[in-house]
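Let us begin with a simple case.
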Amino acid sequence: MAEREKEYSCLLCRQRKVKCDRRDPCASCVKGGHQCAFVPPTRGKRKRTKAPKEGLHAKVRRYEELLKFHGVKIEPFDAEGDSDSDAPSQPAFPTRETRTRQEPCNPLQKPRLILREGSSRYVDSDLWPNLESQYLYPNENEHGRTQDEADDESGIFPGLSTDGRGPDTNPPLENMHPAYNILLKLWDVFVDRVDPFAKILHLPTFWLSLKSAIEQPGDVPSDLQALIFSFYLASVASLEEGECLEVMGECKPDILARQKRLARRALRAAGFLNTTSVTTLRAYCIFLMAIGPGCRSDSLFLLTGAAVRLARKMGLHRDGTYLGLSPFASEMRRRLWWHILGADFRVSFALSMQPSLDLFDSDVQRPLNVEDEDLSPDDSELPTERNAITANVLCLLRCDILAFIRKFSEPLHADVHWETLANPAVPQSKKTEMIKELEDSIETKYLRYCDPTSTLHTLILLMSRSTLCKIRLYAHHPRIYANRGLKVPEEERAVVFTNAKKLLEYMDLARSTPSLDKYMWQMGTMMLWNALLYVLIEARDRRAGPEVDSLWRLMGVVVSKYAEMFKPGAGALYDALRKWLLEAWEEHREAVKAQGSPEPPAPDYIDDFLRYQAVDEVPPSVQRVETGLNNANYTRWVGRGPVMDCEGVPSSDLSNLLSFDADADEWAQWESLFTGEGFSQMDTWQL
């Protein structure tokens, strides 16, 4: 029987790498006289395969994704372009043209927008990929809200609490609607005076809901009820005293206090702090706008912050096109998001603080320049924008201004505030060029369509012009040079003076135009005081001459429009300006006499100021402003009488501040006056 062949070669043949006949012993070993051994072969260790090396393009893509994740806009590279300067730059905020190609702001996460019965809940975490919607709507299912929860909200936001009476003593909200004839008047007031400043309602849809609520008040959802009572409050707040008697049949303080209480109750009933209803958020925003003229800016800053967080919880920081929403819903969410962004921007400025960084971590497109009748909930696509002035233009102007300011911020930073315009890294020639481009853009898109016979168009024209002046003031702010220990160049002083004077003229024009009186409820004074200081500096520097005489007349007109603010006890900011006005007037009077001219007669407001300064005691309401700097009482004599030792005034010698030669600490003291003042009247006129 033949010997069976082995399944493998012998060890020696394998080592010598020769053919083996696989017999035991094999022919090769017999021929060579070697010992033949068959040892099963073992598989050697597999060589470790190196991971493929990441290519250059893959690295670039990965880095771009990381930058996008942190909010940096990546400009596309055109390989066929002639140069970098030929390629159009991406706007700081997404525009309509970029909607189809813009990537989500966070590609590493899988966001979800959960919609349920008019509410929306945004989730951008992978930790809850399959969470059922009922767990994302606590206390909004079958359980409802408890009184303890409402009391908790009252404690957190005491400004939104009721008048202290128990809930059982308050009449039901459904019984507090006005008569239908009064409702029609309030509607006209809202459309004319409130809606242009806060274009967050679709008026045709809201009107249908409002009429239905009046007809069947017992079946109104809590979020719609909150919106309706905020609508009542804002309409009443915009009325003057005489108009309120005519429309409502009551004096304004009484009806306004009652409407505030009703709006607060409605917001609490809607659970505004834990709401996922966009309608409730709209109600809250209109409520904040209505109480703004009588609310300190530091309180309003906190209340607006709640709106920011609620908006992010509802996913308003994500554009609706990425969330699969309808064109109508996407557009209305854009309007609301940009309104909240602008409100936080303005109140942050009043406190010399940066706006919430949450606002700029978004991909929300700017709203369209369309009227409400161009939009419908049944639309399958967005309408074409109008080349005209619409009720949404003020919102669009704010979008343009914010996008412009953001161009001055440092790379990888989202700091967007007025002081960003003073960025010394941007040459002044470049700033002038950029501001001119912005001005041309505003003229082309909006102002060219203004009809001077329209009150709204006049408002838009004044707001645009005054905001451009403010932009130039901050872009050429003297503090740029104070921070570097340099003297302000004459050409820079000329720019500051010209625009400060124009700003005062625009403010005077707004106050002197009777047709604009209906918008005065949203006109504050924050834009005024820096401009008045800069004009005062130039009047003090030039001292005499026809131009100086015109400056004193202009300052007199402005002071007369705000006479109550310059009385003793009005606040440290006004005390400081009053004192400096007296000093500058005394120097002007002495300069005119030195030229051999007759002594100029003192304007009435100067006589009033001197009479105020003759008061022996400082009013208790004038509080010392804590600046953190070296404080010592500051007293001056102006020839015609002593200037009151005012404890509210910055207490170190600020004589350099009145010559543009102030150092950084003195400018900080001036800014501290703004923060310390609190500005009980928010300035929605600011874009």
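The second case is a distinct protein. As before, the sequence precedes its structure tokens.
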Amino acid sequence: MDDTLVFKNVLFFVSGSTGSGKSSLAVLLAEKLKEQGYEQVVIINCDVSQFYFDLPIATNKVKQTDMKGIKHTFLGFLSADDAFVREPEESYIGSDQPQSAETDKEKVYFDGIHCYVNRVCKYINNLFAHAEKTAAILCGGTCYYIQSILIENMLVGSENIDVCDDVEDKDLWHHVNLVDPEIASRYHPNDTRRLRRLLDIYRSSGKRPTELYEETKRFRFDPRTCFFIWAFRSLDALYPLLDKRVDEMVSQGLVEEVKQFFHQHQNDVRKTSIFEAIGVKEFLDAWQSDETSRQRDAAVVKAIESIKAHTRHYASKQVRWLTNRLPPLLVGASYKESIFDFGSRYVKMDLDTDVSGSVERRLDGLLTFFLHKNQSELLKDTVEFPLMEARKNTTPVTQEHCSLCDFVVYGRDQMSLHLNSKRHRGALKRQHLEKSHLEQFGVPVPPRKKHKNDENKS
């Protein structure tokens, strides 16, 4: 098999929504690549919450028994305050094994996505430079990080959060609208995190965000040796699996793990980066209050339900990104000054219909197609190629104004929802009444009488 390899070094991307089975698929892919003749295969984590050393249950880090002897990297290398506790390129030993962190050396802090992208790219390039027959698998669901490894110039602006510190949240949309009305029209004024990022981009680069986003995107690595597998599950099938996974995490000790973390960090827990991870912040009311044990038990139950709801919401967000955000970038991305057709390298593998090893058989066929350019019979009706399918033209999300209600909506389909709402139907009824009254009596309809509650308020 070694002599038939078309590519001596390959880079795979395995992504999908949380709970889709992408981690298991990445391990199976690594085993299959070894069977194909790749002597060194490494899995690189791209899930931000799993960067942290603490909370292995809450962040669902891989166990040694599930790693199947495949080297895993970029896992459990940061403290709660973003300091390195080990080198991310070192092999991870598994969340079910005793862990040790280097705490006696001078602290060096992780500098966000730029730091991650630089270290991962350097790591991959070193792997490929020093050995042939090497495969790297980037696996995770943190969309922006994956996108930034795959596409070269997706990182704009700086990581300095103080660049726009002089602007209050309520004024952010106005400031963005002054410099880039086109991009501002796509965001709700309450979306302060993204608006602050847009203003940061403008102040750091001197260019409008619209200009930067319209620049040609380039593949960071040779796209001829890159392949993307989307581990897909429909949301109807995924949601029960996610709820079940949360229940399993609870039985494994999630509640006690988070409780110890809160007690360890006490009043500083909100300042830790990992606090924002799903499975952590939901327990704030339970472990930072003076409530009775009965009230605390009720708060824990409520936290678990919130974790399930937040996980489902996050999964749907990831599916939207893989469906709507990433494909247009790949379609227009270039390599060596010309657009590269990535269509046959971006695959959607449906894991809903797995029966008795069908995923393994489909993966065999997929690798035969990818690595040996042989159109296997196993590919028929088992995977999709989204980039090769005709895509509907989608328009960017923008503001839409209902003049009748004097109401602004943001987002696709939001105007149709408003037009069917009780508020709009009531306004139409009122408009029809006013028109009929004017035609019949020649005078406008008298203003509505104030409600007693309104009078009390005034």
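The radius of gyration is 26 Å. Residues 278 and 307 are 6 Å apart (CA to CA).
Keep these points in mind for the review questions at the end of the chapter.
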